[in-house]
Amino acid sequence: MPDPSLSLVELEQLLERIFLNHGTSQDVARSLAANCAAAQRDGAHSHGVFRMPGYLSSLASGWVDGRAVPLVEDIASGYVSVDAAGGFAQPALQAARALLVSKARSAGIAVLAIRNSHHFAALWPDVEPFAREGLVALSVVNSMTCVVPHGASKPLFGTNPIAFAAPCEGRDPVVFDMATSALAHGDVQIAAREGRQVPPGSGVDRDGQPTTDPAAILHGGALLPFGAHKGSALSMMVELLSAALTGGHFSFEFDWSRHPGAQTPWTGQLIIVIDPAKSPGHGFAGRCRELVERMHEVGQARLSGDRRYRAREMADREGIRLTPEHLQQLQAMAAGVG
Amino acid sequence: MPDPSLSLVELEQLLERIFLNHGTSQDVARSLAANCAAAQRDGAHSHGVFRMPGYLSSLASGWVDGRAVPLVEDIASGYVSVDAAGGFAQPALQAARALLVSKARSAGIAVLAIRNSHHFAALWPDVEPFAREGLVALSVVNSMTCVVPHGASKPLFGTNPIAFAAPCEGRDPVVFDMATSALAHGDVQIAAREGRQVPPGSGVDRDGQPTTDPAAILHGGALLPFGAHKGSALSMMVELLSAALTGGHFSFEFDWSRHPGAQTPWTGQLIIVIDPAKSPGHGFAGRCRELVERMHEVGQARLSGDRRYRAREMADREGIRLTPEHLQQLQAMAAGVG
Q: 1.10.1530.10, 1.10.3370.10, 3.30.2010.10, 2.10.110.10: which CATH number matches B1-61+305-338?
């Protein structure tokens, strides 16, 4: 018998029930469920239903406020700020999104600075929708201390991803979402769970020695930046933009030790949106298509987001497959016993 | 006898005379001389006086217009566009700079899109001055086809650097300027000239085979992106922002073969400037200092721009040292026989 499969809407509704059942508001439940279901649909398993126990455990710990109401501040013609009030970043983005888009279309560029927020999800779901509206978006978010700066001996930075999305004529938007660490934290967790080694150069153990054992990285060890000093400099930039600029916390500034079960980093997030319609000359999306065509011509078969689009297409056709155990676990969570 | 040394002003004046003597306008001469002298002073030799023959040869070829007058367009409250009119990017930035800063201070964020421009210099001199005025700046510029996209077999991207600058309380701004290729083009040229090998993973030869011979990379070979697929995705982003968004040319779109001696890439440049005074909470520069102090505490002795600051300090004290041969070569250029 094949694994059970759900439509995107069915999975969203199931996850929404789980969040509601664990004390979040309707807005928060909808926003987190949409993000998590989209990741599962796109085969981005490290940010899919795999994350649900971490969400629930963080909510139960009192570390994150599942009923927080974000406070949107209209600062200037290109600047929106949101105090997420100790809640998640995704509902904060939703609350400010329309204002951000309207400013970007009017000023040509606008920035959204989210602070006092928890981000526990993939970053591409935050930027891809802007590209579907014809806008270019760049976002950074810091996380929790687990990456050793290049040349240092102890961890300080988070995995600090950078995500980018741009509209592309005749195809899905060009989107990437990269940890500035050698590996994303979720991928290390999944490798540990599955008993796989991680590639050399990914991390160090508790003594600062190179290791390929994901458990040694997770328990007292740390990750390394990707691309040595360059990835490390980008990670520093992410700290400055996500925390210093927004008024949020650096990855090393919070301490969840008094909240057993807490897993969500309490930091900040920055999103820059540009309206390419302001650009002179040729249309941006057509130019993007030209670049992608040339990338294919020189032999780059697929772009970084294309694996997600292929998984999405299959899920749209055949549903989102879950193992019977996963589905049962989710149903138990929705019933309040998970 | 020690090598001759010049003050920054003396070197700027010498370089300015050279540019004027080779047909540039006063504005262009001043702007390029300041950039090139600053690179030499800071020990950034791949963009210092080493570049002068390339500038002059490009000017002589008629490929770049040394007397171009940039046309500044005030597009929207956060958007400035400049048609560099086939001239250099630095005078285009100078022409639009005051408007860009005023928009960033008013809107909170502003973008400058330069097109139809030649950039043959380091990128950090373009961003560092914004940080000295208390602003955060991010710039990207594409260049000329010499980098193989990750997973491809032929070069397509340029070295496509990303530069970032942020004000930092009690010290020089935090600045980085990184090629998204494994090495900057100038560093490969210098290695070739000095007969040194480049690190493994930097490039391929004309048959697409890995090589550490800089000559094999320069003659028919190509560079690789830094950090595999991640650096490659960033390089793609730089093409999109610098060329597609500005209305400029992609790195693969120009052909200087009919202009013997031409070396300057004819592309575009994007600069995003953010005013952190719009940020709620603590002052940005103080928060930046906190991060840098913590980076030192965990063992990162110096940041990526610090080597330049140390060289600058020494040059301010002892002058900028040039070999007698270099000084003679520059003086000959200034006299019109170089």
A: 1.10.1530.10
Q: How far is CA A28 from CA A41, A50, A190, B15, in A?
A: 20, 19, 26, 60
Q: Where are the strands (E) in chain A, listed by range?
A: 5-6, 71-76, 79-83, 109-118, 136-141, 162-166, 174-178, 203-204, 210-211, 222-223, 266-274, 320-321
Q: In chain B, which residue's Cα lies nearest the Cα of A271? A: B109
Provide the CATH number for the domain formed by A182-224 in this structure: 3.30.60.50
For A134, the token pair is: 């014809």
Chain B: closest CA distance from residue A2 (Å): 34
Tokens of B100: 């860009």
Whether the model clears a pTM of 0.95, i.e. scores above it, the answer is: yes
Chain A nearest C-alpha distance from B105 (Å): 9
Q: Do A110 and B109 touch (CB under 8 A)?
A: yes
* Residue B257 CB-density burial (10 A; 0-12 exposed, 13-18 middle, 19+ buried): exposed
Q: CA B162 → CA A116, B51, B166, distances in Å?
A: 29, 20, 14
Give the domain B69-181+225-304 fold: Ribosomal Protein S8; Chain: A, domain 1 (3.30.1370)
The domain segmentation of chain B, as residue ranges, is 1-61+305-338, 69-181+225-304
Measured distance CA(B111)–CA(A237) in Å, rounded: 18
Helical ranges in B195-241 per DSSP H: 214-218, 228-239
CA–CA gap between residue B69 and residue B96 (Å, rounded): 12
A280 shares contact with chain B (CB less than 8 Å): yes
Question: Among residues 285-304 of chain B, which lie with CB inside 8 Å of chain A?
Answer: 287-288, 290-291, 294-295, 298-304
Kindly identify which residue of chain A lies nearest to residue B305, measuring between CA atoms.
A233
Question: Coil, strand, or helix at residue A71?
Answer: strand
Query: B276 — contact with chain A (CB < 8 Å)?
Result: yes
Helix (H) or strand (E) holding B211: strand B210-211
Q: Tell me the residue ranges of DSSP E strands in B57-195.
A: 71-76, 79-83, 109-118, 136-141, 162-166, 174-178
Among B77, B231, B295, the residue with its CB nearest the CB of A106 is B77
Q: How are the residues of chain A apportioned to helix, strand and coil, as percentages rounded to the nearest 5?
A: 45, 20, 40
Q: Which two tokens stand for residue A328?
A: 């049962």
Residue B321 Cα distances to B9, B122, B268, B315, angstroms: 13, 19, 33, 8
Joined together, the tokens standing for residue B47 give 């963009």
A68-181+227-304 maps to CATH 3.30.1370.60: yes
Nearest to B231 among A106, A227, A252 (CB): A227
Residues whose CB is less than 8 angstroms from the CB of residue A76 and which lie 6 or more positions away in sequence, other chains included:
B106, B107, B108, B278
User: Locate tokens 């961003």: which residue?
Assistant: B127
Which residues touch B301 (CB under 8 Å, ≥6 apart)? Answer: A151
- Helix, strand, coil % (nearest 5) of chain B? 45, 20, 40
Q: Of A297, A133, A248, which is closest to residue B281 (Cα–Cα)?
A: A248
pLDDT by 10s per residue, chain B, length 338: 788 899 999 999 999 999 999 999 999 999 999 999 999 999 998 899 999 999 999 999 999 999 999 999 999 999 999 999 999 999 999 999 999 999 999 999 999 999 999 999 999 999 999 999 999 999 999 999 999 999 999 999 999 999 999 999 999 999 999 999 999 888 898 899 999 999 999 999 999 999 999 999 999 999 999 999 999 999 999 999 999 999 999 999 999 888 999 999 999 999 999 999 998 766 999 999 999 999 999 999 999 899 999 999 999 999 999 999 999 999 999 997 54
How many other β-carbons are positioned within 10 Å of the β-carbon of residue B134? 16
